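User: C-alpha cells for this complex, please. No commentary.
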Amino acid sequence: MDNAKIREAARHLNQSQSLVVLTGAGVSAESGVPTFRDALTGLWAQFDPQQLATPAAFEANPKLVWDWYEYRRDLVSKVKPNAGHYAIAELEDMLPQVVVITQNIDGLHQAAGSSDVITLHGDITRHKCYANCKGDPTLIDIRKLKWGHEAGPPHCPYCDAFVRPDVVWFTERLPVDALDRAFAVSAKADVMLIVGTSGVVQPAAQMPYRAKRFNGGYLIDVNPDQDALTPIIDLHLDAPSGEILPQVIRAMRTSA
Ligand code: APR
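Assistant:
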C-alpha cells in the first residue's frame, strides 16, 4: 500500500469534527464471521435464506427459525473483534465525534469498544417480542427467562407472544429510529470512512451519497476490491481493513 494514501487518509481523519464510519461484512471478514450463506452448511445446507429469515417463515415454523438463529448466535459468540474493529474504536479517543453505522449483526464493533453504533440490520445477540407489545423494539433479555430450550422460542414475559431475534428479516422495514439517525449523521459527516461493504444494499448504500451531497463530505473507502461506491469515493485504500486501519491510526498519531 502506498504510504502517501495512508498519510492522506490520516490527514483528513485528523481534521474531522463529525466522522461517520459505515461498515459491512468485510470489516468482520478477518474475524472469520461466516456470512449468511456461508453459515448454511451441514444440517442447514438444505435451506434457502427466504425459508429462514422472514416473518412468514417464523410464523410458519417458529422452532426452525429460532434454531437457525441459535446456531448462528453460537457461531458469532466464538469470534472476536479484529484489528480493524479495534482501530475504529480507537478513533473515538482521537476525534470529537465518531458514529459507527453498521450493516453487521455480529456485535463486534461494540465488543471492540465502539460506544456509538447504529445497527441498521439489528443485532443477533439481542432479542425482542414478536408483537413488540411495549413499543418497537420491546427488547427481552432471554438469560432471565426459564423455558425448555429444545421447544423453540420462549414467550414474551409481558404478552406471551413469541420472542424473536432482534434482526431485520427479508421483507421487513429497518428500525425507524436507527435509520433516521443514520440519515441525519450522514448528512452532517465531514468525513465518511467506509469499510468492507459492497455498497449495493439499500438504504445503507445511500449514506455516502448523503455525506457528499449535504456536507461535501470526504469519502474514504477501505476495501481490497472495487465496489459499487467506487465512482464517488475520494480515496480508496485497497487492502484488508484489519491490516490498513491500524496503519492509518499510527499515521494519525504521528502527524497530529
Ligand atoms: N477488509 C475490507 N473489506 C473487505 C474485506 C476485508 N478484509 N474482505 C472483504 N471485503 C469487502 C468485499 O470486497 C466486499 O465488497 O467487503 C465487502 C462485503 O460485501 P457484502 O458481502 O455484500 O457485505 P455488505 O455490503 O455488508 O452487505 C450488506 O447484505 O446480505 C446482506 O444483511 C446482509 O448486512 C448485509 C448486507
